[in-house]
Amino acid sequence: MKINRRQFLLLGGFTTITTGLFGWQLSSANANSSKKGLLLRFVSVADTGTGTKGQYDVAKAMDVYHQKNPYNLVVLAGDNIYNNGEMSKIVEVFERPYQPLLKKGVKFYACLGNHDIRTENGDPQVKYPSFNMTGRYYTFTRNQVQFFALDTNNNADWKNQLSWLNKELSLSKARWKVVFGHHPIYSSGQYGTNNNFVKMFTPLFKKYKVQLYINGHEHNYERTNNINGTTYVICGAGAGNRPVGRSEWTGYSTSNLSFAAYDVYADRIEISGIGIDHQVFDQGVIKF
């Protein structure tokens, strides 16, 4: 069959459109298939409660990330209200900065930082509904991931808390175990590694196969390599930042304002460090 030039051009244009549509469908299918098997996505951030531009910048980046990568859980790892944990500031340092996420039903699960306990030992924050704390230390489970929130302050009820943690870890049937508290265990930042915490926590983590520990206090981002089965993530640059170095076990570190995101699958957790420019600056994997 012969076709004239006009028919050829029309056919060519149709082919281009069809190919373009097919290519879009294929790329969309590939994008969806790359997330096949996703059990849970959550993010973490800490040392947030300033109400300053830095906090709003990180909060905005968290919302932009949510638009493309939906999640409904945020680990809020302490120092939720500066400087003294005053609940009178809750609107300016929590409800307003995270309003877009809160309106979408995203739930924040908090723990107490050293600044938070300066007012009534942090009890008003424990009772604040939007922090979803069922106690000074507590646990909850989301789709094969069990979270254990700790009070890591000096005045914590350490005897009962450690007994509780040992019991809850021993009873856990979850595939993934994530512990979070405000203070670091391993750190290359201002405060450095807490040797008392290393002795206190790491044997439990190793015994019960805790794969991830999340904290703040250091105003930076740092992800360790696997240390005896556990990866440690500091996400304390949620409003301000300080310099950070590197240690032999550091996977990545930066002082950039940022938060961390986690995609949980049956065989791995993919960790991303995300800055206020909305770019992923670090990627790590925890293998099951």
Protein described:
It is a single chain. The chain is an alpha/beta fold. It has 2 domains: 34 residues; 249 residues, 4-Layer Sandwich (Purple Acid Phosphatase, chain A, domain 2), CATH 3.60.21. Helix content is 31%, strand content 24%. The chain is built from 7 helices and 13 strands. The chain has a 7-stranded mixed beta sheet, with helices on one face. The relative contact order is 0.14.
Question: TL;DR of this structure?
Answer:
With 288 residues, the protein is of the alpha/beta class. Helix content is 31%, strand content 24%.
Strands, total number: 13
Query: Which CATH class of the largest domain applies here?
Result: Alpha Beta
The dominant shape is globular
CATH superfamily of the largest domain: Metallo-dependent phosphatases
Write down the domain tally.
2
CATH topology annotation of the largest domain: Purple Acid Phosphatase, chain A, domain 2
| Strand order in the largest sheet | 4-5-6-7-9-8-10
Largest sheet: 7 strands, mixed
Gyration radius, to the nearest Å?
22 Å
SSE pattern, N- to C-terminal: HEHEHHEHEEHEHEEEEEEE
**N/C terminus separation:** 60 Å
Counting helices, strands and paired strands, the structural category is alpha/beta
State the low-pLDDT regions, or none: 1-33
